From TrEMBL:
Principal location: membrane
EamA domain segment(s): 6-138, 153-290
Nucleotide-binding keyword on record: no
Topological type in the membrane: Multi-pass membrane protein
Pfam family, one: EamA
Protein name: EamA/RhaT family transporter
Taxonomic lineage from the root: Bacteria, Pseudomonadati, Campylobacterota, Epsilonproteobacteria, Campylobacterales
Keywords of this entry: Cell membrane, Membrane, Transmembrane, Transmembrane helix
Highest taxon of source: Bacteria
Subcellular location as annotated: Cell membrane
Native organism: Arcobacter porcinus
Ranges that cross the membrane: 7-28, 34-54, 66-85, 97-115, 124-150, 156-176, 183-206, 218-236, 248-266, 272-290
Keyword Transmembrane helix: yes
Record's GO cellular component terms: plasma membrane
Length: 294
């Protein structure tokens, strides 16, 4: 199997894991502060990976070498989560869902400056199609909901967070190489994330309250730690080095569609014909972007 084919499979798996995280996060909502919960995820994920690094001398020696790079990459990764949670204090999930559709276009524009890539008119049309089709899914094909959309303070915060997410794969491509050991990179990235999230907790004076989590919460938390944090970091960092930032971020258009399908399968929510059309258009836009040459 070709390396590029494997990379596409990695991103698809990661996208499914991330889509499932919305349901897992919903089950954990209102237990403790979302930023505290994210820090707890990073800490436990780091503990999970620690034996694989600590008991290997070469990996232990490599961590300090990669840590400065990881601090930069984990900064953008952490800023996205911090911005998202702070934004949701002032805005709605629908607003953030619609703004998030801008990330692939943001990434493509950033690739012009960082990698001298171009956006032709045809590509721009496909990005717009991806934004529209994803919004159809996000707003449940209800045009009146879309018309009622109005930007507020939280939307500006999430716009900055989305820009940070667009920078995340850019800097993976810039700072990491295919020769680097992926396990060490993920470990260093998580370590950097723990530092940034801990600083945020102190600056915003947020209580940890990890003792409030009950046994039944840990099933969802385990999914977020293993699936959405460890495995997704592995898959995204591996795929980005092969595909590049632009193609990796194109899969974002599939995210609301997969969330809708998961909610249909596990929560019994219905899918209207309008939403189904949006899902098909999202898939179409993603495929066209992936077929474009860098």
């Amino acid at each position: 199997m070709q390396q590029s084919t494997k990379a596409h499979i990695y991103v698809v798996i990661a996208t499914i894991f991330i889509a499932g995280s919305f349901l897992a996060s919903y089950k954990l909502s209102s237990t403790i502060d979302a930023i505290s919960l994210t820090l707890y995820r990073f800490v436990l994920a780091l503990i999970f990976l620690s034996p694989l690094v600590i008991f290997n001398k070469n990996r232990v020696k490599a961590v300090p070498k990669f840590l400065p790079k990881a601090m930069v990459i984990s900064l953008f990764y952490s800023l996205y989560f911090i911005g998202m949670f702070k934004a949701l204090e002032y805005t709605t999930v629908l607003n953030t869902g619609s703004i998030y559709t801008l990330v692939p276009l943001m990434t493509a524009i950033l690739c012009i400056f960082f990698f001298k890539e171009k956006i032709v008119l045809k590509q721009l049309f496909v990005y717009i199609l991806g934004i529209i089709s994803t919004c159809v899914v996000v707003f449940n094909a209800d045009f009146s909901l879309f018309l009622s959309l109005s930007l507020n303070r939280g939307d500006i915060v999430f716009l900055i967070a989305s820009f940070s997410m667009a920078l995340y794969p850019i800097f993976i491509k810039l700072l990491y190489s295919k020769k680097d050991e992926l396990l060490v990179l993920v470990f260093a990235t998580l370590f950097g994330g723990v530092i940034w999230m801990s600083l945020t907790m102190q600056i915003l004076n947020i209580s940890y309250e990890w003792d409030k989590l009950e046994l039944n919460h840990y099933y969802s938390l385990l999914y977020l730690i293993v699936g959405t944090t460890i495995i997704t970091l592995f898959l995204y960092q591996k795929a980005t080095l092969v595909l590049g930032a632009k193609k990796m971020m194109a899969y974002i258009y599939l995210n609301p569609a997969i969330v809708t399908i998961i909610m249909f399968l596990f929560e019994g929510q219905t899918i209207s014909f309008g939403v189904l059309g949006g899902i098909l258009l999202s898939a179409f836009a993603t495929i066209i972007i992936l077929r474009q040459k860098s």
